[in-house]
């Protein structure tokens, strides 16, 4: 069962390759989190290179234990709707 106040953490890989591509999806999620007042339920963090640089940018969603690769703004929108609302 889904806990209502469970904190979610979105980890953006901040390695050399992902770091080049993650600004757009990260900014999008930050904007949506603020817009929906989810700041105390969702936080955005960063992680080191995960060895999947060919799939940059890489995102990890906790506590769902979900990896997302090649995260564009469009994919960030899906992540927001599916996992953060
Ligand atoms: S830089 Fe992100 S997986 Fe390597």
UniProtKB/TrEMBL annotation:
Q: Kindly give the Gene3D superfamilies that the UniProt entry links to this protein.
A: Glutaredoxin
Record InterPro entries: Thioredoxin-like_sf (IPR036249)
| This protein's name | (2Fe-2S) ferredoxin
**Biological classification of the source:** Bacteria, Pseudomonadati, Bacteroidota, Flavobacteriia, Flavobacteriales
Native organism: Flavobacterium endophyticum
Superkingdom, natural source: Bacteria
């Amino acid at each position: 069962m889904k806990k209502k106040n469970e904190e979610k953490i979105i980890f953006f890989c901040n390695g050399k390759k992902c770091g080049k591509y993650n600004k757009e999806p990260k900014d999008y999620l930050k904007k949506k989190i603020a817009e929906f007042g989810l700041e105390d339920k969702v936080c955005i963090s960063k992680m080191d290179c995960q060895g999947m640089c060919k799939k940059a940018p890489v995102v990890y969603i906790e506590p769902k234990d979900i990896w997302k690769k090649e995260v564009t703004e469009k994919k960030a929108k899906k992540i927001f709707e599916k996992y953060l609302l």
